[in-house]
Amino acid sequence: MKNSTLPKFNQNHFRQIVETVNCQLAEQFSIEKNYAHGFWGLVSRLYTKLTARSYPMCIHQSVAQQGRAFTD
């Protein structure tokens, strides 16, 4: 019985994408070298970094949508 219904090519492609994104995020957030004293300290630091990275993108998207509204 097969474990998966995806063709082998799709599995390898998906795995490559996941590994690439994982490596990029690990490098951007410096996860390998963290100085948190406990698990919740690590969670707090990652949450802060993720928020600091995504919040400006949301602001940029909001401003871009407002700019398009003025040009229409």
Features:
76% helix, mainly alpha, 2 helices, 72 residues
Write up what this structure looks like.
- It contains two helices and no strands.
- The protein has helices at 8-29, 39-71.
- The model has no long low-confidence stretch (mean pLDDT 81).
- The longest helix is centred in the last third of the chain and has 33 residues, at 39-71.
- The chain has one domain (8-71).
- The relative contact order is 0.06.
- It has 72 residues and is mainly alpha-helical.
- Helices cover 76% and strands 0% of the residues.
Reconstruct the topology from this structure.
Layout (H helix, E strand, L loop, with lengths): L7 H22 L9 H33 L1
**Poorly predicted parts:** none
Mean pLDDT: 81
Strand content: under 5%
**Secondary structural class:** mainly alpha
Shape category: flat
How many extended strands? Answer: 0
- When the domains are counted, the total is 1
Radius of gyration: 19 Å
Helix-strand string? HH
Termini separation: 57 Å
What composes the largest sheet?
none
Number of H- or I-type helical stretches: 2
The helicity comes to over 70%
